[in-house]
Structures are given as structure tokens and as C-alpha cells.
Specification:
Blueprint: H1 14-24, E1 30-31, H2 46-52, H3 69-81, E2 91-94, H4 97-108, E3 114-119, H5 125-131, E4 135-143, E5 147-149, H6 151-157, E6 162-168, H7 180-193, E7 196-200, E8 224-229, H8 230-233, E9 242-247, H9 250-267, H10 272-283, H11 285-308, E10 314-315, E11 323-327, H12 334-345, E12 347-348, E13 350-351, E14 362-366, H13 371-385
The structure holds pyridoxal-5'-phosphate.
Pyridoxal-5'-phosphate is lined by residues 96-98, 122, 168, 172, 200, 202, 229, 231, 237, 242.
Length: 388
Amino acid sequence: MFSHRTNWDLKPNRLSEALARHRTNDRPLLDLTASNPTECGFQYASHAIMRALCSPRTIEYRPDPKGLEPARRAVAQYYADRGARAAPANMVLTTSTSEAYSFVFRLLCNPGDEFLIPTPSYPLFDFLADIQDVKLKRYPLIYDHGWQIDMHALEQAISDRTRGIIVVHPNNPTGHFTRPEEMAALNQLCMAGKMAIIADEVFLDFSLLPQPPQSFCANQDGLTFTMSGLSKISGLPQMKFAWLVISGPEQLKREALARLEMIADTYLSLNAPVQLAASVFLEMRHGFQQQVMPRIRANLAELDRQLGAQNKCSRLHVEGGWYAVLRVPATRSDEDLALELLDQRSVYVHPGHFYDFHHDGYLVVSLITPEKDFGSGMKQVIELCSGG
Ligand SMILES: Cc1ncc(COP(=O)(O)O)c(C=O)c1O
């Protein structure tokens, strides 16, 4: 009855089952994975948000497959504020970055074609690829005082079916940005092999680096699809508003845009009210980010304070994003450790294997967790890992 591409193992994993039991039993929970910004205690200008959705033009239906022009201009302004140029004509709006990935896979891949993805990284790619009949090959990121792409392994992973390379900038959960020399190497490979670069920049604004990192939307060498959206930038995932910026050699860019416009026209998936409110929601990023960055810094400082008082656990270097990777003793599997933390200490963390870490000894925590929970939860994690 069903397609092979949906033959997923849909059984909940041991940790989700344990979490569901924990919640049904009404036990207290210190959730160190909290990453839904609307549930992390940030202040939102609720009335202004609701007012922005009430434009008289919401009554009209005048769709534009690439997205309404004022909304694309608002996205262009977002990049201009960062000192980057992204013309409204070179954009396609989507309901989410997940939808943007799907459009790009549809544009570039025949069934069975391949994309390269970083590992460790964000766990949604496998499903996105399965649904579009795309195969994923992994290229390793290596950690040596900081993260970097294993360029040799990446080159080895390229085959004649490879249509593009995905970079997450900064990556989730490793929190590192693609370096300018890595961008240059990726451009060389993509231009030589007729491949595209797909840059996922949903966390671009959450940088801890001294200088703001460059967006890939300025990349003119290889054909480049840069994506982001309101989910993280303004902390408004419920609005379902994201975008794709296309840059690169003129002829390729024009052809990609024309084909993407057709894909987008087939769905016309964005609603008018959110597009009409986009400029207001994008402006709201300042108020949101002014709350998030101090929280990330405070949680990292608290983490370092607690880690400094012991020698069993440490953390990996973070350059940006919402997550920290903890290095813990690999005395049991990461999943067993996460289960113990939940059952014995009411603390919820993600085991490294959720993000494709290949060895035990890694836990991932969210740095946007409310400070009090973060401090109390980390105390429990460190105590349990230290055999306390
Ligand atoms: C790296 C990365 N890309 C994309 C997304 C999804 O964003 P959207 O809500 O726009 O689909 C997430 C969500 O956590 C993410 O971590």
C-alpha cells in the first residue's frame, strides 16, 4: 500500500518513551533541550505581533510565486543591515527552511542523486532527503580545539551523482561557522564538479565571534542557495516564514530562479497575512536577539563555572548558535546516560548520537534554556557523570 520512501521505523526511541512516561507521571522536569523559543520565557511584543497580522490587504489574494514583493524587500533589508547584498529578484520565499531544502532537492536532483551533509549535524536531513528520493552522504567535521571540515574526506565522498554540498553556518549542534578558506575550497569543488552549495544560516545572527560572520548570500563563485527564516532569527517558528537567496554565476542563477519559481508556483504555500507582516517580524529580531544573546552568554558562563570546579566533564568550543556539546566520561552509552539523568535526576538532555556523533561521550544541551533550569540541570549532569 505504501511507498518504500516512507518505510521508516516509526517506533519511538527509548528516550522519547521515557520522557513521555515522565511527563504522564507529572514528575518535575529540567529540560536542557528546550529550543522552542516561544516556550523559553522570552518577552514578545504580543500586541504588535497580532496587529501586524491585521493588514487590510490580507483580504486580497494576489499571489506571487516568489513571495510578495514587500516581504522580499524586507528580507533584502535584513541582509543590507548585515552589510550584504541580496536583491529581492533573487529570492524565493518558503514556509520554512525545511521547505526550502525540499525545493532545492527538487530543483537539482533526479531520484538517487546525492547531497553531501556534515556530520555531526541536525537530524532532520534524513527525512527531508527520503521524501525527495535524494541520497545523503556524510562528510566528517573534525574537532581539534575547534571544528573544521575534513576537506579530504569531503572530496572522497563526491561521486558523479553528487549534486551539491550542504553547510550549516553555524552548524547545529557544533556551533562553528564555515571559515573563509573553507568557503573558497567549497567553491572550487562545486565549480569543478557542477555542484551547488546549500548554506543553512538559520543561526547566523547568534554569533559569539568578535566580528559578525559573512553570509553565503554574497557568494558569487559557485551556484549558491542560502536559506534562513523567522523561526530562529526572530524566534517566531509559528509564523512559517523563510526564504532562499540564490547567488552565483549569472546564467546559472537565472535558470535556477526560473525553475524554482515554477516549483513555488505549483504550491503557493505562503499565506498573505504573514508575508504582509514580514517586515515588522524581521524588525522584531532586534528585541528577540537582545534577550537571547545575554542568555546564551550567561548559560555558557555558568557552564564554565561549574565545569571549572571538576575534571570529569568539559565542553567543546562554541562560536555561535543555540547549543553546547558536553564531553562526558563514556562509561555507558550516551543514551543510557540520558535515560539515567531523566529517571534519577529529572533532567532531559540529548545524547550525541541524535546528532550523529559516532562515539559515546557526548551530550547536547540548549543554551537558550532559562538560566535557573540550566544551572540546576547542569549541576545534576556533572554530579551524575562524576559518579555522585
Ligand atoms: C540547522 C537548522 N536548520 C533548519 C531548521 C528548521 O528551521 P525551520 O523552522 O525554518 O524549518 C532547524 C531547526 O531547528 C535547524 O536547527
